[in-house]
Amino acid sequence: MNTIILVAVLTMAGLGTFFALILAFFSKKFAVQDDPRVEEILAILPGVNCGACGVASCHLFAESLLANKVPINGCIPGGAEVAEKLSALLGVESEMPEKKVAVVHCGADANVRKLRARYQGVETCSAANMIAGGELACIYGCLGYGDCFDVCPFDAIRMIDGLPRIDLIKCTGCGKCVIACPRDIISLEPWDGSHPLVTVACNSLDKGKDVRKICPVGCIACKICEKLSPELFKVENNLARFNTPNLKEYDNWEKPLEKCPTNCIVKLSDKVPSLSK
């Protein structure tokens, strides 16, 4: 009996050794050598694995870049500085990527929001939004639990009175907050810092009379902005929309801010010289 067991053990050990040697041989013979430039590219990239470039990680971006599957200026967080370094490393020309920042289209913080119920559950925007749309009377507004804050890898978002505030200098336009928001109230807008950034801080498609009942800072589609600056503002589906974030060519954008009856058209920032260089 002991002899049978011994033979079985030795046989299994022999087979294991044999197949291990076979695997080692083929793994060495068919091993794919990494391009040494991958590590050089990784040393240039921010390394946050944000996915804004369209691939899952910085390592995959480096490999895809060498395979000409992504543009050399595809690293959104890295911006012009990273694009320039990659261009120098690989010896190719590159157009500088357009600077974009996250913009929040809601101005109703915890001090003015009206509730239609009391939500008790997991305190995330995505969870609250799945439970009958959350507790807010406005089904379009910010839920205020900070899912966008949680996913921002650049510390560019602060939650103040339950509303995300974007640090436009720190924001790289990676888009993670856009994906995280279940209400789609965050968008990426072109902005290079050379002019003020203006937006409509509302996302509601309700009629004006209904907006007035639930939000003092919502757009009521009065069309004052459209009448004052038709080239910049357009009211569609009960919501004023800012047609262009580029104010360099216009000098009549301040009137709508002054005349908006609910103050939902806001200036997020003045021009920032450090970004416009």
Notes on the protein architecture:
This protein has 277 residues and is an alpha+beta fold. The protein has two domains: 37-90, 3-methyladenine DNA Glycosylase II, Chain A, domain 3, CATH 1.10.15.40; 100-269, Alpha-Beta Plaits (2-Layer Sandwich). Helix content is 33%, strand content 13%. It is built from ten helices and eight strands. It has a two-stranded antiparallel sheet with strand order 1-4. Helix 2 packs across helix 3 (58-66). Mean pLDDT is 87; it is low at 273-277.
Report low-confidence residues grouped into runs of 5 or more. Answer: 273-277
In the sheet with the most strands, the strands line up as 1-4
| CATH secondary-structure class of the largest domain | Alpha Beta
Number of domains as seen in the coordinates? 2
Question: What is the CATH topology descriptor of the largest domain?
Answer: Alpha-Beta Plaits
Structural class: alpha+beta
Shape: flat
Report the portion of residues in β strands: 5-15%
Number of strands: 8
With helices defined by DSSP (H or I, 4 residues minimum), what is the helix count? Answer: 10
What's the rounded overall pLDDT mean? 87
User: Which oligomeric state applies?
Assistant: single chain
Q: Terminal Cα separation, in Å? A: 85 Å
The arrangement of helices and strands along the chain is HHHHEHHEEHEEHHEEHE
Percentage of residues assigned to helices? 25-40%
Report the biggest beta sheet as strand number plus sense, adding barrel if it closes.
2 strands, antiparallel
